[in-house]
Amino acid sequence: MKKLSNLAFLGIIFFTAACGSKSGDTKKTEAVSADSTGNDKIKTVSITSLAPQLFNNYIDIQGRVDADENVAINAEMAGTVSKVHVQLGEEVTPGQVLAELDAKVIQQGIAELQSALELATTMFERQKNLWEQKIGTEVQFLSSKNQKESMDKRLASLQQQLEMTKIKSPIKGIVDAIDIKLGQATMPGLPAIRVVNLSSLQVKGEVAESYLAKVKKGNDVEIILPDMQDTLKTKISYAAKVIAPLNRTFLVTVNLDGAKDYHPNMIAIMKIVDYSNPKAFVVQMNMVQRSEEGDFVFIAQNNKAKKARVKTGRVYNGTAEILQGLKEGDKLITKGFQELNEGETVKF
């Protein structure tokens, strides 16, 4: 009886050991399966679906805002300022008197000459009547005529000098500076009053001679005014034909909208379009990688990374024009492409 109990006990031990061995083999198999799945790496990337878009190549130059009608008006003769008729910021018209110089001496001379001219005119008319009646000598007639004509010319000269004492505006605009004061002496060449026409502002810049064939009147141009944080798109108004001999550049001009508050001599960045492709595939240049076979980018195809061999065209500001190798709808990998290998599984 005791022998049977021992045999039963041994049987239970062997059964338990066998079951334990079978369970351990199952766990080991499952672990191997998990490891084999883990070896199939899936990389997360970002993509963009390609579509044709506008690509522009620009020539960047620094220009400045210039007033085509920006006039520093000086006195035409020496004298003392007796009147200033305008204030800063005041709008003026062509021919308007802005200031006057002391003209008392000239005015007195005109008054005296006018009295003498009246007498000379009377004497001439009498001599003329007598000469027509064959009375008197020809010398008397010619002398009175010469005296009157001489006084006419002197009077005209004094009146012209009187006009020269008036500082007038030659253009329509606003008074931007007044450099004279009452009682101050001035003379030709010294600054007096500045008038600026803000409705005729332009941006001007110098372009290198090498771009002469590409930069023409009518080219699209983007004007950036950093100080005003303003950008406008317009066209070149004029491209000069003459090359400056000192720096081998030519001048380009762009007319500005006078309705905006631009200021002469402001810095302006001119971005002139010298090449344009309205239906280009455009990628960031850092996405284009190089190999012995040539340039390529990664695209996602059936959840796999694939190298697309490309031919690049113009490059501007880190952006490349793709001439060959891509088509509309291709899923360009834009992030996560640095560590990719062709054929790797990707998700996005």
Report on the architecture of this protein.
The chain has 348 residues and is an alpha+beta fold. It folds into four domains: 43-55 and 278-347, conserved putative lor/sdh protein from methanococcus maripaludis s2 fold, CATH 2.40.420.20; 60-68 and 198-275, Elongation Factor Tu (Ef-tu), domain 3 (Beta Barrel), CATH 2.40.30; 72-102 and 165-196, RNA polymerase II/Efflux pump adaptor protein, barrel-sandwich hybrid domain (OB fold (Dihydrolipoamide Acetyltransferase, E2P)); 103-163. The protein contains three helices and 24 strands. It has helices spanning 2-38, 104-132, 138-164, and strands at 42-44, 46-49, 53-67, 70-73, 79-84, 91-92, 97-101, 166-168, 173-178, 185-186, 193-196, 201-208, 220-225, 230-235, 238-239, 249-255, 267-284, 289-291, 294-301, 304-309, 311-316, 319-324, 331-335, 345-347. The radius of gyration is 46 Å and the shape is rod-shaped. The two termini are 73 Å apart.
Instruction: Supply the helix-strand structural class.
Output: alpha+beta
Task: Assign a percent range to the helix content.
Answer: 25-40%
The CATH fourth-level homologous superfamily of the largest domain: Efflux pump adaptor protein, beta barrel domain
Biggest beta sheet attributes = 9 strands, antiparallel
Q: What's the tally of helices? A: 3
**What is the domain tally?**
4
State the name of the first-level CATH class of the largest domain.
Answer: Mainly Beta
- Secondary structure tally: strands: 24
Second rung of CATH, namely the architecture of the largest domain: Beta Barrel
Based on Cα principal axes, name the global outline. Answer: rod-shaped
Give the topology string: H per helix, E per strand. HEEEEEEEHHEEEEEEEEEEEEEEEEE
Task: Please indicate the percent range of residues in DSSP E strands (runs of 2 or more).
Answer: 35-45%
Tell me the distance between the termini: 73 Å
Radius of gyration: 46 Å
CATH third-tier fold name of the largest domain: Elongation Factor Tu (Ef-tu), domain 3
Average pLDDT figure: 85
Oligomer: single chain
Spans where pLDDT lies below 50 across 5 or more residues: 1-39
